[in-house]
Specification:
By secondary structure, the protein is an alpha/beta fold. 40% of the residues lie in helices and 14% in strands. The model has no long low-confidence stretch (mean pLDDT 97).
């Protein structure tokens, strides 16, 4: 038995690898006393908006809050239906519910993202919007989704929590609709040291509503309370850390794409696996590989086998799709999603693993299927 270990995500290294620089940033912000809604936050919001080619960004406490806030700002009415993918985190659905709407999960397509045909089939007189999830660092095929939204007069928003830097036809995830959320959870491609998120928005009027809701209803221009709001503000220490990390973000993306290319080269011939699209294999897509999620025959046995060799894997969201939460009232049928959730598994994908680690993982996957 090998003593080599490849954790799914090495959380301590998130701090230890940049400890000196992080302590300097924390000391700098803390010494000024500027912990909330100060220059470090506004600087990061400008940097993030510029990076994404969005007019505005608003730092919030987490990505789930971000979705709840932009849906409230848009003005969801009780009974309004919003179509989502069943292959997403429960937060995508719960944000709609909290905002007063009804989440309607639908099936996935060949890319394991929301199926445009399933969207069309799910539209009812109560449907008001579509919220595709840009998942695992990949942006959906947005052209047919936008066409459906325009055809039926529906608004489009995005759950882009996992997709910062991902593009479809050169356009950034999170900038296709009225608004979107980004997550900075520690294990994200751009991660900080706790829960944190942001909203991307380009319409000025909607931006001002979003800003008010995230800061107790106070207006961005004069601080006057204009509406009921809440407290969901990204703190300055986290904002400063994210600004620092954003400067080298492309290097992180490049590394993840290189790891994905190794997995593709080593595992692409195995008939028992269905891998995600390789980097640069589809000209319309630029993927950042937030996760490396694939479908595998004998998934549970593979997971156990890899664990015996100290390789961490993950079945996303505990292996439960949105429509399978029957206790929450869902009763949709999504056969392709159900099949995928019986087979899906994520291999280690982060900047902490070495080339040797990636080859070790690949060796053991091959051993499992070719023993």
């Amino acid at each position: 038995m090998s003593t080599k270990k490849v954790p799914f995500f090495d959380y301590p290294r998130l701090w230890l690898d940049d400890r000196d620089q992080m302590l300097e940033i924390i000391d700098q912000i803390s010494s000024t006393g500027g912990f909330i809604m100060q220059k470090a936050l506004s600087d990061f919001e400008k940097d993030l908006a510029s990076y994404c080619a969005s007019t505005y960004s608003v730092g919030v406490a987490n990505a789930t809050d971000g979705m709840e806030i932009f849906l409230e700002a848009i003005g969801i009415e009780p009974g309004d239906e919003i179509i989502i993918s069943s292959h997403t985190m429960l937060a995508t659905a719960s944000a709609i519910k909290v905002a007063g709407g009804v989440p309607v999960p639908v099936d996935i397509g060949d890319d394991n993202l929301i199926n445009p045909s399933a969207i069309e089939d799910a539209i009812t007189p109560r449907t008001v919007g579509i919220m595709p999830t840009q998942l695992n660092g990949r942006t959906c095929d947005m052209d047919p989704i936008l066409e459906i939204a325009n055809k039926h007069g529906l608004f489009l928003v995005e759950d882009a929590a996992q997709a910062l830097g991902s593009k479809y036809k050169g356009k950034n995830a999170g900038t296709f609709g009225l608004a979107s959320d980004i997550s900075f959870f520690p294990a994200k491609v751009l991660g900080c040291y706790g829960d944190a998120g942001a909203i991307l928005v380009s319409d000025k009027n909607l931006y001002e509503k979003i800003y008010q809701i995230h800061d107790h209803g106070r207006d961005v221009n004069d601080g006057e309370v204009k509406r009921w709001g809440r407290n969901s503000r990204l703190d300055n220490v986290q904002a400063a850390i994210l600004s620092y990390k954003l400067k080298s973000y492309q290097e992180v993306i490049n590394r993840r794409r290189f790891i994905a290319s190794i997995y593709q080269e080593r595992l692409g011939y195995l008939e028992e696996l269905r891998l995600p699209a390789a980097p640069d294999s589809q000209p319309n897509h630029y993927d950042v590989f937030q996760n490396y999620e694939l479908a595998a025959d004998k998934r549970d046995e593979l997971k156990t086998f890899l664990a015996d060799f100290n390789i961490g894997t993950l079945v996303q969201w505990g292996g439960t799709a949105i429509h399978q939460f029957s206790q929450l009232g869902f009763d949709q049928e999504c056969p392709r999603t159900e099949r995928f959730f019986k087979e899906c598994i994520m291999l280690p994908m982060n900047v902490f693993i070495s080339d040797d680690d990636v080859h070790y993982v690949a060796d053991k996957v091959i051993d499992f299927y070719r023993a």
